[in-house]
């Protein structure tokens, strides 16, 4: 990402509960003036990206990857290309080779996104603490 051209949509790389990380990341987002994309369109694209991410599921877990906390960071460039940094529940995940493609396909369908690059990371490693309350409820983890 080139300096002053990337727009952080959301940064979920911390280990705090997901809601706290989202609130902190939202407070640190650059102002709309820092992006060449109009603020109202940027808000719509951001919402649409989150909705697209919620359509991708780990086949072994009945919760989407967004609510599981597998999405660490999403950057939207001024040219509307997208970079997604994500993790898996375990390095040996049976769909490790396929899931980044599923994510790429989902977010590239978002109106306003020209292309997407999805990268896997295990730093920091995923833990159940990253899951939303919705995910915990769906998995009976309360």
Secondary structure layout:
Elements: E1 6-11, H1 18-28, H2 39-53, H3 65-68, E2 71-77, E3 81-86, H4 99-108, E4 115-120, H5 133-138
Parallel strand pairs: 3-4
Antiparallel strand pairs: 1-2, 2-3
Describe the 3D structure.
This protein is of the alpha+beta class. The chain has one domain: GMP Synthetase, Chain A, domain 3 (2-Layer Sandwich), CATH 3.30.300.130. It contains five helices and four strands. The longest helix is centred in the N-terminal third of the chain and has 15 residues, at 39-53. It is globular. 28% of the residues are buried. The model is unreliable at 1-8, 13-18 and 21-32 (pLDDT under 50).
What is the total tally of β strands?
4
When the domains are counted, the total is: 1
Order of helices and strands: EHHHEEHEH
CATH architecture: 2-Layer Sandwich
Strand content: 15-25%
Structural class of the secondary structure composition? alpha+beta
C-alpha termini separation: 39 Å
Largest sheet: 4 strands, mixed
What's the Cα radius of gyration? 15 Å
How would you name the CATH homologous superfamily?
Fe-S cluster assembly (FSCA)
- Report the uncertain regions: 1-8, 13-18, 21-32
